Task: inverse folding
């Protein structure tokens, strides 16, 4: 019960007019950052960090975390409207969100995305409130082998669930892993696969690949189909929000499972990206409309958005409790904590109760304020789609170039972006799925690190991945997901034999 | 059935893609062997993981290759006329991305937006110029003033003293 007393104290702090004003400014800045290319949540928080040095730590974290929520909301906007995911965890949102926009249902897709984000985040905050003291213990059990098993599960569910041929999925995923491996080896510090090109030293950043594969690839596909930007028939009015809300409760099962996946993946520091992909995969398998996923199903927007925000929010818990940031943005926030003179760790909950519970209270209110702000803007965002393609097309190209450039301030990256764009067009036309490649580029280094560290611990024995109940169960689930097609056909044959 | 002269066949393009992937896998293996694939003092060496990845790329692409050869004629990849549209975007964009490194971002971007509007959208030049300059002016203010993110600039911007 002590937690609730703290929480109410936190609300009292957040509800001061000054802090509410900071909250609204933060959300607005965050949405702008999320929509602008190349200014993801992490960059945005980093750029605005100096603004907060003069504030009290509590006010500062309220503003910065609101920028973070705003950026999370904003990322969904570009994913749905232009098929350009601003952050890795928005990639899964494009699968059904963009088709919806093409069918003239951009307003519905945006409303569903924002509302699900809010629900995911709210679920995670409630969980944080209840579990805060217990979580530190659990997270400490997560070693390299457990981490790898979570990645393994995420990748396997891709191969097993996809409607594309499994070997094309595998090839695409492995190319992503290979691209992730280029450059500095994060474990030993050696260079590899650079073949003497200094440009390849830093490897391939996922953002460049994503901007190229999805953003540029989409423009090329649109050109092929003759300049018709297919979203312009969108009838947008405020009633869309209301109509979509009436439809959403039907998907409560998807919502709930996505919340749980997200929270679990956020706390076990796997992060929001695998959470969004896995939740999309599971929703696709369990939903009645599963076969239609990818063609603009509202459930396909609900699942990844809910999970990503649940994970993004609950990732703040290990950051506060252990000092282990679950996402790049959480890492920047962690940097902020250190600058304000706060030491993250279990003691933070004891020594800085005002700060911790102020932050938790601001998560509740920040997400609510954020939802209201972005929902009122839905018609505005959707109206962007009415601009003719011959204007918006080159503007998107320019913004993609800006986004690619700002990642490392490198003009070479802009050229790589176009290479990825042409590659994306070719692969999409050849029926290779792009999402597994992007996921592998994002998580390749982390998965490899976990894999090698586990092998190092076990002296090269693969038995380490089945050495205890937790890791064994996750690996087993991964194998089931991998061979799902075979298992399914086996079952139906058995049924035929019995019948 | 589609006449083959209308455009490249889906099967030929898929065949070429799979062959390119096998070659890419071989490249990854060569690079991994250079980095060392054995077990060193630091555990598995740098090339260990990519080596396995390279093998997986070759294996899966080989299977795709076989499946592609076995598949029936699956129609056209794209019509020549459509391909011409796509290439008409790729070529100016290639010039654009290369020139960003030389003359900065702003001028090529204006030319790209303006040119695209006149060429594909059949807008009047005055409208195209207005949109191009307007978009880049807003970009300049947002990125350089507001968020303090410097974008690449070249001699023209220097001349203006920006």
Result:
């Amino acid at each position: 019960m002590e937690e609730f007393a703290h929480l109410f104290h936190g609300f009292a702090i957040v509800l001061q007019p000054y802090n509410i004003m900071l909250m609204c400014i933060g959300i607005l800045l965050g949405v702008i950052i999320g929509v602008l290319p190349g200014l993801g949540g992490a960059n945005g928080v980093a750029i605005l960090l100096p603004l907060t040095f003069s504030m009290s730590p509590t006010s500062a974290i309220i503003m910065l975390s609101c920028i973070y929520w705003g950026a999370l909301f904003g990322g969904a906007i570009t994913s749905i409207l232009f098929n350009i995911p601003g952050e890795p965890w928005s990639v899964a949102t494009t699968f059904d969100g963009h088709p919806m926009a093409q069918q003239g249902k951009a307003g519905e897709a945006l409303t569903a995305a924002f509302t699900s984000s809010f629900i995911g985040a709210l679920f995670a905050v409630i969980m944080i409130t209840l579990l805060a003291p217990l979580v530190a213990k659990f997270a400490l059990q997560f070693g390299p082998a457990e981490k790898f098993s979570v990645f393994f599960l995420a990748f396997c569910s891709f191969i097993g669930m996809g409607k594309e041929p499994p070997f094309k999925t595998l090839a695409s995923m492995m190319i992503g892993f290979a691209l992730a491996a280029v450059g500095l080896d994060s474990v030993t510090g050696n260079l590899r696969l650079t073949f003497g090109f200094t440009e390849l030293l830093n490897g391939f950043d996922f953002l460049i690949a994503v901007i190229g594969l999805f953003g540029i690839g989409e423009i090329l596909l649109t050109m092929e189909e003759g300049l018709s930007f297919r979203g312009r028939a969108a009838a947008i009015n405020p009633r869309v929000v209301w109509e979509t809300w009436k439809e959403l409760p039907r998907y409560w099962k998807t919502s709930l499972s996505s919340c749980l996946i997200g929270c679990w993946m956020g706390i076990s520091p796997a992060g929001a990206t695998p959470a969004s992909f896995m939740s999309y995969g599971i929703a696709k398998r369990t939903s009645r409309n599963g076969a239609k996923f990818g063609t603009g199903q509202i459930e396909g927007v609900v699942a990844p958005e809910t999970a990503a925000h649940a994970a993004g929010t609950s990732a703040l818990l290990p950051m506060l409790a252990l000092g282990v940031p679950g996402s790049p943005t959480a890492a920047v926030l962690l940097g902020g904590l250190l600058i304000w003179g706060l030491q993250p760790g279990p003691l933070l909950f004891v020594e800085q109760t005002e700060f911790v519970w102020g932050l938790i209270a601001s998560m509740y209110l920040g997400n609510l304020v954020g939802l209201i702000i972005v929902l009122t803007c839905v018609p505005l965002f959707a109206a962007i789609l009415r601009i003719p393609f011959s204007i918006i097309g080159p503007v998107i190209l320019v913004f993609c170039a800006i986004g690619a450039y700002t990642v490392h301030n490198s003009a070479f990256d802009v050229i790589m972006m176009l290479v990825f764009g042409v590659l994306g067009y070719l692969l999409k036309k050849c029926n290779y799925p792009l999402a597994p490649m992007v996921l592998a580029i994002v998580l390749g280094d982390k998965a490899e690190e976990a894999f090698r560290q586990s092998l190092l611990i076990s002296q090269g024995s693969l038995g380490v991945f089945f050495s205890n109940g937790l890791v064994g169960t996750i690996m087993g689930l991964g194998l089931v997901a991998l061979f799902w097609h075979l298992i399914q056909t086996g079952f139906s044959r058995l049924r035929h034999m019995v019948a | 059935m589609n006449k083959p002269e209308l455009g490249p066949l889906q099967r030929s393009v898929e065949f070429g893609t799979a062959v390119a992937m096998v070659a890419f896998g071989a490249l990854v293996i060569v690079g991994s062997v250079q980095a060392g694939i054995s077990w060193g003092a630091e555990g598995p060496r740098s090339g260990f993981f990519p080596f396995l990845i390279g093998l997986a790329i070759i294996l899966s692409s080989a299977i795709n290759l076989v499946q592609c050869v076995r598949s029936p004629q699956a129609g056209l990849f794209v019509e020549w006329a459509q391909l011409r549209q796509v290439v008409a975007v790729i070529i100016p964009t290639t010039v654009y991305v290369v020139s960003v490194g030389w003359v900065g971002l702003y001028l090529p971007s204006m030319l790209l937006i303006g040119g695209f509007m006149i060429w594909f959208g059949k807008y009047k030049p005055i409208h195209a110029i207005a949109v191009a300059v307007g978009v880049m002016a807003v970009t300049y203010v947002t990125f350089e003033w507001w968020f303090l993110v410097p974008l690449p600039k070249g001699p023209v911007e220097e001349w203006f003293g920006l």
User: Anything to note?
Assistant: Residues 147 and 450 of chain A are 6 Å apart (CA to CA). Chain A touches chain B through 68 residues (CB under 8 Å).
